[in-house]
Amino acid sequence: MATLENASKPKDSQINQAHALTYWNTIPATANGMLGDMLRQYPQISRIDLRGSLNFLAKIRRTNTSSGGTLLDRGADCGAGIGRVTAGFLSKVCQVIDVVEPIEKFAKVAREMMLTGDGKVGEVYVTGLQDWIPNAKYDIIWNQWCLGHLTDDELKHYLVRCKAALEDGGWIVVKENMSTDIEGQDILDEEDSSATRTNEKFQALFKEVGLLMVKTELQTGFPKKLLPVRCYALQSV
Q1: Which end of the chain is more exposed for a tag (fewer CB within 10 A), N or C?
Q2: What's the DSSP call for residue 90?
Q3: Mind listing the pLDDT tens digit for each residue in 109-151?
């Protein structure tokens, strides 16, 4: 429960990653678990989301004539859960996808995709993003519905590491819910201990760490009752 003392603190400073891990370990390793009430109420959400991501990537690839229509060599699915984005989207555009996911039972499902699917899953890192140190070079590092578990400082350090791991012309993509707070503040979700940031906060953080925003757009087709979702394509300055 929120207290008067906590109400005056920045929302990101109230993130408790131990609490978040405890919460996510209670969630089943299924598509329903990953998207929760969204998928139960709106079963079309995952399909619309994946199609929107594919279209967004196609738009930013048009700005890089060298990438053409060929498969990207290597991508990373960060905060991957059970690999919904890897299976439904990244596997269609990358030759190999590394998976970063702190919950072991979710990562296990991604490993099984490597064994039973088309073999596109590469390394599986069972770790939080705040602790992940990339040891490969990536054409795309995809972050979706996960960065709210990092404090602002952790997010900045994480983005710096990701920036150093990009191939020339590569992208960091961030796809996250947007705060709709009437006072323009971030929103704290006490259930899973995450912060939903404003568009202005995200753009300020990107600028601080020397990332150029080459494109941003809102996901379309989601029910109006849900928080808006925005995609950002970022490259090293």
Answers
A1: N
A2: I
A3: 988 876 555 668 999 999 999 999 999 999 999 999 999 999 9
Q: Supply 24's token pair.
A: 């996510």
DSSP codes joined into one string, 12-25: GGG--HHHHHHHHT
- Residue in the block written with tokens 């700005």: 63
pLDDT in tens, 78-100: 999 999 999 999 999 999 999 99
Task: Quote the CA–CA distance of 168 and 92 in Å, as a whole number.
Answer: 21
What backbone phi and psi angles, to 5 degrees, belong to 214?
Answer: -90, -20
Joined tokens for residue 200: 């202005």
Q: Enumerate the β-bridge partners of residue 175.
A: 144, 231
Distance between first and last Cα of the chain: 42
Cα gap 188→127, rounded to integer Å:
23
pTM of the model: 0.94
Q: Is 141 left (phi over 0), alpha (psi -120 to 50) or beta?
A: beta
Query: Token pair of 84, please?
Result: 């919904």
Strand bridging mode 138-144 / 194-196: unpaired
> Positive or negative, the Cα torsion across 212, 215, 221, 224?
positive
Does residue 221 surpass a pLDDT of 90?
yes
